[in-house]
Design goal:
It contains 2 helices and 5 strands, in the order βαββββα. The chain is α+β, with helices and mostly antiparallel strands. It has 2 domains: 42 residues, no CATH class; 56 residues, no CATH class. The protein has a 3-stranded mixed β-sheet, with no helix packed on it. It has a two-stranded antiparallel ribbon with strand order 4-5. Strand 1, helix 1 and strand 2 form a beta-alpha-beta unit.
């Protein structure tokens, strides 16, 4: 689980979803990587991404997305915005926002 949430929000998510690892922003050098379980669980072969919702109606929830979901979303956005292979695009949305992916 990658988190930019406040400590209280992060703790609530950890208690609810019991992730194997929590990585905080700036911790990619390894100091903040915290193992939470000693066993590793297998993942569904089509699972590509767990995207957190905004939590606007309560606690954030995770949405399971496949590679096909992400490809379809990207193709739809590129088509709508008329983005082609010869275009360069400035990414100004966070990657935890579906439209930013």
């Amino acid at each position: 689980m990658f988190s930019e949430y406040a400590d209280s929000q992060l703790q609530a998510l950890i208690e609810r979803y019991e992730p194997n690892y929590v990585i905080r922003q700036g911790d990619l050098a390894g100091e903040g990587l915290t193992a939470r379980h000693s066993r590793t669980l297998g993942l569904h072969p089509e699972l590509c991404l767990l995207l957190s919702t905004s939590g606007s109606t309560g606690a954030p929830k995770f949405v399971k997305l496949s590679r096909r979901n992400l490809d379809s979303n990207a193709a739809s956005i590129a088509d709508y915005l008329s983005i082609g292979p010869d275009n360069s695009v400035l990414l100004n949305l966070r990657l935890n926002y579906a439209y930013g992916l």
